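User: I've been going back and forth on whether these two constructs are worth ordering. Before I decide, could you fold them both?

Assistant: Sure. I'll take them in the order you sent them. The first construct and its structure tokens:
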Amino acid sequence: MGAVLGVCSLSSWVPCLCSGASCLTCRCCPHSKNSIVTRVIYALVLLLGTVVSCVMLSPGVDQQLRKIPGLCSGGAASAVAGISGHVNCEMFVGYKAVYRVCFGMSVSFLAFSLLTVNVKNSRDPRAAIHNGFWFFKIAGMVAVSAGAFYIPEGPFTRVWFVVGTCGAFCFILIQLVLLVDFAHSWNESWVDRMENEDSRTWYAALLSVTVLNYALSLIAAALFYAFYTRPEGCRLNKFFITFNALLCAVASVVSVLPRVQESQAKSGLLQSSIITLYTMFLTWSAMTNEPDRTCNPSLLSIFQQMAVPTAPPLEVENQTAVIIVGTEEPVPTSPYLQWWDAQSIVGLAIFVLCILYSSIRSSNKSQVNKLTLSSNDAAVLEETSVGTLEDVTESGGPRRVEDNERETVQYSYCFFHFMLFLASLYIMMTLTNWYSPDAEYSAMSSKWPAVWVKISSSWVCLSLHRSPGPLCLVPCLTMPYDCQ
């Protein structure tokens, strides 16, 4: 009887899998808005796909799969009579698996983007595709990813590598536009509070954050010279560090010029310091993709060198020979170690934070320059709160998630899904460390196109920071009807 009651209780949640996000969260989340809850769920789905991809890159996964009877060819099937494995478990590990999982996510998000073109409010029938049918959407995404494992090797991996590189570059550019806009908005907000409240607290906070950002940038540049250059050689790294540092200095000086202050009264050093710090990160990210390991040491070896400085070689002389005693960094032989180096882990951690923020916050239609969603959501809520409360009363029960998009959407559904499409490609390239795929694991190596993609994005970042023209593209990217 208890089992029957449990099944009945579980079946009561089945309609929620086919309805809106409000049903999924009405019993476990506090009072919130449908537009925010939906984006949170999509961000969690993307994060779940990232976790699955990370698991498939973990060492020993193929050995564990071979222990499942009847799954892998040449695995545990031989110990079970009448069961034969026909699955090549090598397809479930390494960059091949990451490419296929991210293929399923990216294709699904691209399909959602095309299906939600020009959705103006939640009363549009297509809005239900975006806000509901979660079971079918997730099941479809899993089915596409599973079907991708049956795609034969060869052109697929090479073509998808090119698509991933282009999509990841586009995602970096979108992130840069949003970062520049966020930096200007942050500076404008704090300057307004400093002027209106006539308090030195905001001035101290503004000055402290600015000094901290510049200090971190200087420390980063010094560390780059110390560990990513050599007295003779590594000239390209020297050029990247010096050129980007000079560009950041010029951008900072230009931001406080009188003529710039006349045209952009809120322009200041805060946004310049943020752009400078992010440019240093992009410079470091580009140098970590160089094929030459002499100019691209692992982050773990850098930490070891900082903790225990390398001693000079010790010469032990005797009557017959001179023996040089030194230390040499071991070369990893496992194909998985080249994915799970420290650079990839740090880059993935930073990327996860960025993708969660951009996926949830970057698509506001009228508060793009503030990237907060709070003001516009409040305005729409005031317009629709009466009708919403009436609907709650008529439904016979409290609803903790409000539909605040009955009159107009709070963000572009089309652009939001397109952002997730590009983000899936960026995840794929980040987890595989932008390696160019080859048939043999030993041939996996970084390539120069990844270096130039990242370093050129830093130059675009600085040009967007000082040029008001590209900032005009932000409303075009994020208006609700941008995909008409």
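The second construct, handled the same way:
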Amino acid sequence: MLMFFDEIRMSDKSEKEQLQAKLEEMLDEKHKGLAKILAQKIIMDEYSAEMQLRIVELKNLDLYLQNVLQDAELKRQTYYSNQKSRKLEKVGDDLKYEKRKLKEIEDGKLDIKKRNPEANQKLMYFVDKVEKNKKGKILDHSLPQYRRAVSLFTGLVGDKPVHEYKLSDFEEYQSLFLRVPLDYQKIASGNPLKAIEVNDNLPDGQKYDTYKWKTFKGKHASSIRVVFDYIKKHKILEYNPMNDFKLEEPVYDYTATRRKPKRSFKNEELVKIFNVPLFHSCLNSVNWMTPGNYPIRDFKFWGILIGLFTGARSSEIGQLLVMDVVNYNDMPHFHIVDKYTYEDVLDYDLNISEEELDEINKRTKNKKSVRLVPVHNELIKMGFLDYLEKRKSECQSHSEQLFPDWYADKYGRHSTLMAERFSYLLDKSGIKTQAISFHSFRHTFKDAMRRADLPYGVQRKFMGHSLNDVNEEYGIDKLQKKHSEEINNISYDMLDFSHLYMK
């Protein structure tokens, strides 16, 4: 039996009800509920759309559903606004999604009564399975990204059994994501919706930095898709609810709350930073911002000074190993490197076994970040090389951390601890603003190199930036002694470190 409804134009309530009644009459009790839902979707007239609907080939007299929708096409009218067009596109996506589900029921691929019991599990349950499945296939440090992404996703759209997620959940997820503050864990105890509310109510200029579109596309949405792909692959669900979800970069992405770049430290800020008890004498290792008679030479002391005299990122300094301070051009250098390029970048004695090398798990921002930065004479005068020798005598292997008290967070990031400690220092110094952070040392060092008239290629190399069209004489394997010595032309006239020099 073939039935056709061609170019049905819904204009009033009575016609809607007639269409819905006809659809329901065509189906037995088993499928009537789904047909009602589908009919309600199709006959919505709030979009003022023209629709073509063909219902074809109902098999046998028992009205078994062979195919409810063969074609559902929305014709956009040219005079519609952009907003109206997006609504039309959403209706089309919903129709395709419902069509797929009904087709799976028809083919016997999806039977609600025979659903896999694991489909009642929450999404985080499958993260552990994905991590185990990915072990050995991707870098270990990328595994926690799935957990972070799922935690934020469920916080925004709800933590429910995986079979309950619909297309609308992912659209809501996308619309809310760019409004989530980066520090939502601290702002609202891990509740992203509450953090959004708090941030939205703050006056302009005081709002927290929020997530960016590229983070959503490149990390979070892709991680959620990986988890749902795993679920479908292992037949926990017979379809991936993200398949019909379209990533749409917003025209307006909350630029008022977008993270602003950090700036260099002002001279007066540098003076206040290096005038705290940490760089003189403090009460003890715990009360390092309280004056006393206890000199500290821990990761905070050296990390901040190395940041000032190298421009290195906090994550790069925190990952330094004992063997990463190398002799090159007859000078000590910091060797900023990831785990894969130790033997490729420089020909020097690592003094560790292959097994120890395999266990190293370091990373840099990109390939250009692998570099040598000379140790400044000011650091040497303050006793950095003595600290290095002390660490060599303490550790069992030179593959151990240079700063053992600089531990990584649960996601393997070494930037978190220093960010917290340095933020506390800025706060106690009375200079804390959103415009400055530990990363400001990077800009400050860059300014200092310009003041010292370092060759442009040397500046780029010390910063770990691409050389672009600069002559390759500044490549890491061709860094001449005169280039290494340029580091000591950098100075900060407003600062006096003589009280820290070794006697």
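Notes on the second construct follow. Strands lie at 3-5, 50-55, 71-75, 325-328, 331-336, 371-374. The chain has three domains: 3-112, 116-257, 267-500.
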